[in-house]
Predict the structure.
Amino acid sequence: MEERTRSDEATNGNPAEELVEEWRNAAYNCFSSGHKFCREVCPVMQVTRDERHTPTAFHANVVAMDKGHLTIEDVAEDYVHCTMCGACELRCPNTLFTGDFYRFRQRTVDVVKAMRALAVKEGVHQENWKRWAELTDRWGNEPVLGWNIETSAAKVRAWATGLDIPTGGETVLFADCEAAFYRPSVPRAVALILQGAGIEFGLMSQQWCCGGPMWETGYVDVAHKMAEHNILDWRKTGTKKVICLDPHDYLTIIENYPPLDENFDEFEIVLGVDLVAELIRDGKLELTTPIERTVTYHDPCRLNKRLGKWKSPREILRAIPGLTFVDVDHVTQWSYCSGAGANLAAEKPELTAEISRRRVAQAAALDGVNTLVSACPWSERPLTEQGKEQGIEVFDIFELVAEAAGFEV
Amino acid sequence: MAVAALPDTLIDELVAICGEAHVFTGRSALFNRARVPSPFPAHRWEEFIPQAVVLPTSAEQISEVVKLANRERVPVVPRAGATGLTDGAVPLRHGILVDVKLMNKILEIDVEDRTVTVQPGINMLKLSQELQPLGFIYPDNPASYPCSLVGGRIGTSGWSLIGGRYGHTRDLVISFEIVLPTGEIIRVGDGGGRKVRKSSSGYQLKHLFMGHQGTLGIVTEATLELVKRPEAEFSAFFSYPSYMDAWKATGDFARCGAATLAGVVLFDEWKVAYLRRDDEAYIPQPDSVKAVIAVAMYGNDDEVRASAKRILRIGKGSGGSYLGDEISQGDWASRHDRYATPQHGRTRDGQVALMSWHCEDASILYSQLPAVREKWHAIAADLRERFDMFDDWGMFAYTNGAFKSWGDYLTEIDIGIWEMKWDDESWAAWVDAKREIARIAIEHGGSISACHGSCREGEVDLVPLELGGGFDVMKKIKRTLDPNNIMNPGKYLLDQAYEEGEE
């Protein structure tokens, strides 16, 4: 609290100055390093080759703002060019080599978030993100089906029709906006798998967006509203455990929810792929239907780069009978991305498409591979679109598991 | 001091040449193409920004931009990775910045004649990732291997960490296409023939356009060596009780005659102390360790095995202690990541301060290393004494010659600089110190720079001293090829070529 007061005095409550105050040292740590090793792993930079879109620039701008050279108006649009995949943080020598010693990590994703939030606070909006946030605020879920197709909380469990899933209970399945409305085969597959393995679970009485894309694009107030609603909803139905089928939801909930609620540790947040890998390992889910495909796996950025989770999906794929799995090392995949993250597609659809095209081409170049499997519904839309062009089918890992377990999704 | 904008008509012409999506005049586009990783006076940022940025996609576009710049007498500054350490890509006179990063395609892989032809905006790590499945590498391997680009390597005549075995940039680039300062597109090599490695035909123009820091044109395509991926790598680190013991041993290693030898690196006690600030390197080594030598070899398995035995024998015979496989392999493998760590900066009372890395990179004769080392450390100590924002991060000496490792050494003193503290006084002291470091290199028969180039403030003052009559020839060449002084003006004191009295 004292910190806050001092900082407020130094900055007179000016949001731009507050940001500089908070990030100055981190920015200089990048500015002083100058390695730029982040650049060639950045999925955006690989396409645009524009120095404004580099993690180096994202930090240097803070230094330039500190020195009075640039303002948020000058740079806000540059910060759109980031999927928040986290590759730059992993490739940063400041993090890789001395990070643990100095307890320091170059947190580029958080810098981008802070800049986007500052832009919104200062009234510098990106038109589609603004509209996205407004509709999310109005409908409770993101406008993933277009501006004119309402994605209301009343429809958020339409995917579960006929599956006889109760409301609430100790464990609930949290179905992501994109999955629930755009790719309902994913939540259906997960529900069938859980039911097949004898897991008791329900759905929220009224699920709203996790809030992640609102935090990511700077609409922090909407994000808080979403999160607070969801936490309240869980409490109302006595929920203790939340299963997330989508890495974005999982990361948002474990990273952004706890600071909002001092009793948040009463909830256990479970990642879908970890749970399913465990069910297979423990013999609670038997995969007996062979799937004759040659697949490679796309490491979703939130899992692989942001959370260091890459083992469970591989364990699952190796357990599917009939499947030929051509693996690409998860470190090699630091420079891979679908381009879908941080709602880039809403503002720069052509950039998302090109990042996806390249990702699918990397899969298509592998010997005999005809299928790309992901574990992130957000990635699957652009990857599927590009897959059609390149003769690569795209599946969610749960879709394959459900099929291998003999369920009709 | 605000920089005047270029006329709208000129911007319209740039758009007509490069396309609207590839011409930028916004402030962030300009500010983010002003600096390179070398120490930068952020308080004077505006003095170094371009007035417009273009991202061309072809040699023809670059040629048109250069012709336009000549007509309008506007400076042109080429920029590739902007990872260089001598400010080659910094626009000292503003103007049009030509950023070649979008030109990053592999144009041809010729397995038969062993060449790969690329555009200048490709990175070496990315290139080697494409080549490895075919059994090849492109072994131009600087500390900036994961981020620097081929065009910049040619512009600086770069230096490779494994140059003793595979050669440096000048040895690995067979020929290249360049847009001259007046807009003509030519190809230069060792004579004619895009893929010919050795020719006696005509002047050796490849070398003229290698290391010009963007003052003689913009490279638009390069044909490079396609090198067989080595079967084996061997690296060994040895410790020594004194610098002089290690210096003698360095000479023994470098002169061992093994064709597999890629590099011998001597770290002095200041550098060992710097690395001890890290929790992962050298801390287990006792205080008696005052210097370390790293030796690296590449080649066919049978060759490397045999020469590795020789290296271990020399290490033992010279009084060195082998530091074990973990450090030998791990530290060599991490060589690109370890070259600077801001948090290792320390104030005089030992507090952590975020410091930039400045690496002075002279070529020093083996015989002169001990004397130069003492003088350079004294300069660093004086700086630190006067300003509590400089830190001595120690010295390296790397074998410097391609294929012949025994003569001179890329000799670095790494100075940490707390850049948040810059003011005009400390900047001036720093520039003076750089000039003195360069002067000592020349006085001992060396060269100001082995790898970065020597056109930064301070050191550049001594380029005429180092080159003598050669500098007069440089000025004549510059004036002939760039009559309007539009190509990266302000570098290498070449503005002098246009002063009254110069013919």
Remarks:
- Residues 117 and 223 of chain B are 4 Å apart (CA to CA).
- DSSP finds 16 helices and 18 strands in chain B.
- Residues 232-459 of chain B form a domain with the Vanillyl-alcohol Oxidase; Chain A, domain 3 fold (CATH 3.40.462.40).
